Amino acid sequence: MNPVFNQSINIQFPNDISLTIKREDLIHPFVSGNKFRKLKYNLFQAKAENKDILLTFGGAFSNHIAAVAYAGKEQGFQTIGIIRGDELLHKIEENPTLKFAQENGMQFEFVSREEYRLKSEESFIEKLKDKFGDFYLVPEGGTNELAVKGCEEILKEEDSVFNYVCCAVGTGGTISGLINCALPNQKILGFPALKGDFLNDEIRIFAKKDNWNLISDYHFGGYGKINLELIEFINAFFEKTKVPLDPIYTGKMVFGVIDLIGKNYFPAHSKILLIHTGGLQGIEGMNIKLKQKKLPILKTND
């Protein structure tokens, strides 16, 4: 585990507003950001239950799939990924995320999108147990009570100076942990990467306070959607700060926060902490798609 640090963003904002980014992306070279936090106590629990196999769910470009594969290998588990859609069944080599996961020992089971929707059904889980044996189930995106417990460790004592803590939202585990460990004077703002209002209910399952709000205006059309404006923003931000942002989660959140500063959403003198939840492994796959669409690629180094 590498030390995480807070990096000041040296960009002048109006009304004496300051931005700082917590570099959770640097916590581990392959299990970065919130994936490290979410898996920490789940791996402890799997070992306590004497399980040898981790089974989880995800899409073909999933940060979670890549993280479980590497963490499982590192901790001595077999890993199985139930992948949404079967279009890449014979094209694993063409997908950087799946290729990485396979190289780290993950076995795949590709299922149709219709079947994938049954992932929480007991009958579907039982079929998987019949096929793969007695596994420890890690939910899609890694979110459960143990994941939230891990995410409650993101904020440190030195973070008490911040009025706002902002993060991207996928399945709701990371923001739930932040909500639970935030101080009374702090507001947690979540920026969903998906369309729809269902996340409020998901977060309320785990969140113990009401110090939060979701801002749903910056998903750029939905999960995995990206356009030229976002690409140019992420690349310009990297040029100014040397902080690479992923286009699925953190890039959209940072775009949203800076846009809201320009719209006077935040009071004067606000100190805002951005949580970088990692996900940089997905950039290689996204750049393949961008080249196909003849769009600029995302920069991650000079």
UniProtKB/TrEMBL annotation:
Tell me where in this chain the PTM N6-(pyridoxal phosphate)lysine is found: 35
Domain (Tryptophan synthase beta chain-like PALP) spans: 18-278
Matching entries from SUPFAM superfamilies are given as: Tryptophan synthase beta subunit-like PLP-dependent enzymes
List, alphabetically, the Pfam families matched: PALP
Cofactor (UniProt): pyridoxal 5'-phosphate
The reply to whether Transcription figures as a keyword in the UniProt entry is no
The record's InterPro entries line, in alphabetical order, gives:
ACCD_DCysDesulf, TrpB-like_PALP, TrpB-like_PALP_sf
Which residues act catalytically here? 62 (nucleophile)
The molecular function terms of the Gene Ontology recorded here are:
D-cysteine desulfhydrase activity
> Which keywords does this Swiss-Prot/TrEMBL entry list?
Pyridoxal phosphate
Which family, according to UniProt?
Belongs to the ACC deaminase/D-cysteine desulfhydrase family.
Q: What is the name of the protein in this document?
A: 1-aminocyclopropane-1-carboxylate deaminase
Organism equals Flavobacterium phragmitis
